[in-house]
Every structure is written in structure tokens, then in C-alpha cells.
Fold this protein.
Amino acid sequence: MKKSILAVLLAACAVAGAKAQTLTFGVKGGLNVAKLTNTDNSHTRASIYAGGFANFALNDMFAIQPELLYSGQGYYYRDVANNKYTTKLGYINLPVMFQVHLVEEFFLEAGPQVGLLASSKVKAGKVTVDTKDDMTTADFGLGFGLGYQFPVGVGITARYMFGLTDVYKNATEAHKNSVASIGLSYTFNKKFKL
């Protein structure tokens, strides 16, 4: 499964490079609301995401957008004594989104994502423990979203990403990432014809 998703990502980038008519670049960032599936009494954790993207417009309707993002994820829970335990996960994510522009400004998108674990810490009160050795290094997922881009280059985006792989190495049941994001993007006005 992991090799299949990676192959799709590489193929998408190759096709985009070969068929793109217009190339633009931009930056984006915003709010993540994340949690892990199959985690009892867990609550969502709010964090941020930020990074950049390249947008390959194939024509007026279709585009492919690879991105490189830092993404804060994780969850928290409280035990019976009301002590709070927060799992903070940090990923470097590479999504490749296939976009359909229903009108010039509004688009729907979907595509695969591969993420590399950058950090994993559990915080309880003033104590923080590094738990990166307990986690899987690569996280594969799928995303769906939509967006609206104003003519000045500013855009509003929303996306939901769900993980396909277990984030823990030796868990008895699968715990997968679940992340909803909303944010702003800015596409630089310079367009490169390919």
C-alpha cells in the first residue's frame, strides 16, 4: 500500500511537469484540528500548518498541486483524576492534490499524501517525554478539500485528511491520523508558461 501511494505521488508530479500549461507558486498556512482514531476518551488538538506549493494548471479546469507543509497534529485526553495528557505530533507532509475548477475562482480537490514524522512528544503537566521511537516514521493518507481564490492571489482553503497507516509501531489496534484544516493561501502573480 505504501509503495502504491508513493508511486502515485511520483507519477502525478511527472505528469504535471510534462503536461502543465501554466506554473505558479504560493504559500499557505492555517489551523489544524486533529485527533487519532480508536483512542478512547480522546479530544481534538488544535495546531497549525504552514508551507508552500506549486500549482500546475493543465487547462482552465484541471490542475495538479504538490505541496510541502509542516503540520502539527495529535490529540489529548484526561484520566479519571482529570489530569491532561497531550500527544503532540509534528509531520513534514507532501500532499499532491488534483484540482477541478468548477469556475475560475472555486475548486474542489482530492489526492494522496505522504508524511514524515518530525517530532512526537507527550506532555503531562510540566513533564514532556519524547516518544518518537514508539511511532512509525511514514504516514500515508488521502485528502479532500475545496477552496476559493480571489483575483488578488489570496485564497481560502479547507481540507480533510485521513490516515491510512497506523501511527504507533506496536499498538494492538490501529490508530490513524484524522485532520481537518482551514486556512489562507497566497499565489504569487508571476505565471510561468511551460
Strands lie at 22-36, 42-57, 62-78, 84-101, 106-124, 127-130, 138-149, 154-163, 177-187, 192-193. The mean pLDDT is 89.
